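[audit] Reproducing an earlier prediction to check determinism. Same input, same settings, fresh worker. If the tokens differ from the archived copy the diff job will pick it up downstream; this log only records the rerun itself.
[audit] input (423 residues):
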Amino acid sequence: MSRLGDLDRAHVLHPHAVVGAPEPPVVFVRGEGALLWDENGNEYVDGTCGLWVCPVGHGRRELADAARRQMEELEYYASFWEFSNPPSIELAARLAELSPPGLERVFFTNGGSESTETAIKLARLAWHARGELERTIVLTRKLAYHGVSYGSLGATGLPPLREGFGPLPGDFVHLAAPFPFRGTTTDGLVAELEQAIEEVGAGRIAAFIGEPVIGVGGMIPPHDDYWPRVAEVLERNGILLILDEVVTAYGRTGTWFAAEHWNLRPDLVATAKALTSGYFPLGVVLVGDRVVEALDGQAFRHGFTYNGHPTGCAVALENLRIIESEGLLDRARELGGHLLDRLRELEELDAVGEARGFGLMAGLELQVEDATALAARVRERGVIVRATGQKLVMSPPLVIEREQLDRIVDVLAEELAAAAVAT
């Protein structure tokens, strides 16, 4: 093993790794477009954007230059109270232009978990400010991923992520998630939602939080009529809608926000990841008119040291410019259709239950107990995909070439066929 590998195993505690039994690390040293290279010179097609992060791809000098220019002017200053800086102001105004109607205010964070945590706190505080002190319960869903800080973990619906951390924050009710492959129906899901509201009491529910398209839980698009019908039930009962667009915002689904696919009017939207393409840690919560009106005159005693970081905001502005100028929304739709067509060819294999896609995010439902070993074999062939339980998830950069998408699918097909022969 290399010097870096030895140091990594000796000193780095990796997320989701087994403590005391680290795997030999893959040390990436360079990236360009949709390609990565490790310290040994091996090339990989990045089929996951790291963690759904880099729509504009790796190695973009424009973003490095944007960070450098801002650091030379004002690298950082606090954004608490009345303090501000030009990039954060310009970014907030730009996001108000791009977002669904009614989302005119922005609260800055450092990432996805902080964004969902912030949105939950804003929803509860809004009702408190209106004198409805019992409205604290948040409806969420099984299979949901909303982060792993304590508040966001309370909303997350993946059991392995919740085990062993002691009592989690209360006032979360987990409902079934839309999962057409597993037999859910919109009628059944809406009936469960309405029953939960009746049992809990609408006057005790602050908000419903959901990913427009389930990401970490397996890349699961909802039924076509799911979100319009859920939104109608929430509106009828006066319940706020929080959309977790940490994965789906800024072009991943072929629109700036996935809410646009169903003409949704969320009260709060949590975002991060693709906002800067991962070139700087940054997230935002878009805050709707109803929440702002409820909070009028109320102090929001919440914040993070790096809120509205000027360098991060400068990077985000340049990143959004690239997404728009290079037509990456259209590219996500076009290449996403091609990827899904290719993945559907694999449904002929016994190990593949279903291929799914939405924009340039895709998944394979596999007839295996755990897809981790398959993902590892695929990586040895120079392709990076993500295993999550029985599923493989893909979310490549929006700048990926069609031939690189074909390489992903070809390697998957060969490894799935080889596994079938071996068994």
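[audit] rerun output stored. Observation attached for the diff report: The mean pLDDT is 96.
[audit] end
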